[in-house]
Amino acid sequence: MVNKNDEILLKGRLNGSQRNKVKRLLDMMYTPLELSEEIGVSKQQVYRVYIPLGCPHTKDRIGHILINGKDFKTWVIDIYKNKKLNKNQTYCVSCKKIVEVIDPEINSKGNLIYQLSKCPLCGNKVTRIISCKRKGNDKQGELEAH
Question: Strands 58-59 and 112-118: what pairing?
């Protein structure tokens, strides 16, 4: 059975450039607008995704939301860390959930070896890559052969 803690969080995920900008946030208070401009997301994403998910924030005496950059960085790294799947688990892109592998069929294509099975929730095919070995300097070898 899959735990609720193992669920992969998709809302609010940041791309590589945005993650690098989060790492550069200072230990100071940002308004949601300033934070959104610093990391390259919309102000609505801060209000609709991060704050409801538990982003550490405070309110001043007037009620304005302020977010500490250092605390936000720590929170983002913790909540969006990569999830490790067990050997008998895979990710279903239709259900957007981690599911158990049932009756896997092992296939290979070139240097790629993978398991193919059905999602127990929606019935679609799910794939789990077992190994992918690349040959080093393939083009280099072809040039030397000619």
Answer: unpaired
